[in-house]
């Protein structure tokens, strides 16, 4: 299927979903206070683009998202390289990693709030914790998938461990790391909005949604905020997918046998 066909089908699916929501609301199957027509929600979402206070909140959410994701990458990539290249360290830390990985970040909100207070640093910490794992595991998996013949060739010519890492392993792992960053970006956005809703940190898109929830007939504003969150996620994913295809075109154009073990297969570990 070509990209154009994918785009057309995506637009068609969106239009059908929009029409179904509009029909259900207009036909009175669901009370408007619970589910306003999709057209009203969309109009409200568009009008929010002219609201300076709302845009400041969106900016605060994006800042926390970017800081949390950057912190997660700064920790996960070096740690993943260490775990992937030092088997003893991997064995020593495996139990700790597997213990921490399943812990949901929202369950850590009370603890983080006690330690760091209701501040941006607390939100960034939660985002970094949640988005750490996809990058970490993709880095470890990518190292294991690098070409052993290329590594053996460099060693045969006298190159040291660091040279093999920099010349073969790191370039071969880069597409996997990029895929992990893309997955983590979505996780980070979810945590940014969710932590604001649940804990009331400062300002942000989640704060707007939480405040709209308590307002009279605020369902429309809640859904408009959700539309903004979904749109941000769509744009971020599109930008990262485009960057991946441009920077690592060779990985996406690999033969089918190799593609099965390529970076696209590494979206499961989160």
Word description of this protein:
- This protein has 270 residues and is mainly alpha-helical.
- The chain has a single domain, classed as MetI-like fold, CATH 1.10.3720.10.
- The chain has twelve helices and no strands.
- It has helices at 3-26, 38-48, 52-85, 87-100, 109-116, 120-144, 148-156, 161-199, 205-214, 219-247, 249-252, 256-259.
- Helix 3 (52-85) crosses helix 9.
- The protein starts with a helix and ends in an 11-residue tail after the last helix.
- Mean pLDDT is 86; it is low at 264-270.
- Its main location: membrane.
- It is a multi-pass membrane protein.
List the helices and strands and how they pair.
Layout lengths: L2 H24 L11 H11 L3 H34 L1 H14 L8 H8 L3 H25 L3 H9 L4 H39 L5 H10 L4 H29 L1 H4 L3 H4 L11
Protein name: ABC transporter permease
InterPro entries: MetI-like, MetI-like_sf
Family: Belongs to the binding-protein-dependent transport system permease family.
